[in-house]
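Q: Got a minute? One more chain.
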Amino acid sequence: MAYIVFQDIEKYYGENHVLKKTNLAVKKGEFVTLLGASGCGKSTLLRCLAGLEQVSSGKIFLDGKEITYMNPRNRNVGMIFQQYSLFPNLNVYNNISFGLKMKKVKKDIIHERVQNAIKMVDLNGKEKKYPSQLSGGEQQRVALARCIVTRPKVLLLDEPLSAIDAKLRKSLQSRIKEIHKELGMTSIFVTHDQDEAMTMSDTIHLMKDGVIEQSGNPFELYSRPKNSFAASFIGNYNILPTHVFSKLIHREYLGFNNVVIRPELIEISNIDYGKDREYYCFSGKIIGILPQGNIIRYTVNIKEALLDIDVLNNGKELYQLEQQVFLRVKKDFCINL
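A: Always. Here it is, folded:
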């Protein structure tokens, strides 16, 4: 059996059906992300594991033991929230040591563990400072240290970085993943940010309306979406109805509902590519240019549809608005969903 198992989990808030027969398994030592838009049920699932919410039906197992209705304090699960929830009247050292004191751990062991945790989250020299004297990133690191110092079986993180600026957020993402590896913890991370999920996860479970739409490693979700929702949520796909795509290639395209193509897999040129058995070729006019840091996104009108094309930004303007361009994409890169 997997280390954590959610078995047919149902959750209602009145008539609102939040989780719908959710089944999910997590391996020991895995870093798992629950990804989805607000209201999809990801935080509710996390809170059910922590015991902060009761399931309407179904079972939850941790390390081979059913914990569905177990008291939260007996689950040995640590949770970090978006709100840091630090004690404003306690300094950094005492905030971190609070959980150990409640468990009546010996003073010398408390001191050793707290010092190790402070070092692990890079808060050396901040021990005597109070939360009001810390930045948002420092407060979040205190919350992380307070959680890991108790050595929980599972670390749960409910959008803990959403209120932090982008540069610091990247740094904390790396630190959380490093700590996860150093301690060999099993971690479940909740976020609505697909880039964050791709960066941090061993496994991603993409959720929508209380249902897990697709599970897999970041590469699988990015390159092999199972449906149009997954394609639109993970990265950026051009999603074309099959009947529209058929008109573009001048023959009937036999498939399901949509053809999806990654923008970075479409080649663009001001010279006609000609015909090639391995490629679909189009031509059109540029109607949009959007610099996005290391790439430039061109939007091309090809009469029947609009296609986004991502090109590496080398500091030069390659194409201009209203310019006629030629496109091609390998047939193997067109995914039918």
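A: The chain has two domains: 4-233, 238-336.
Q: Perfect, thanks.
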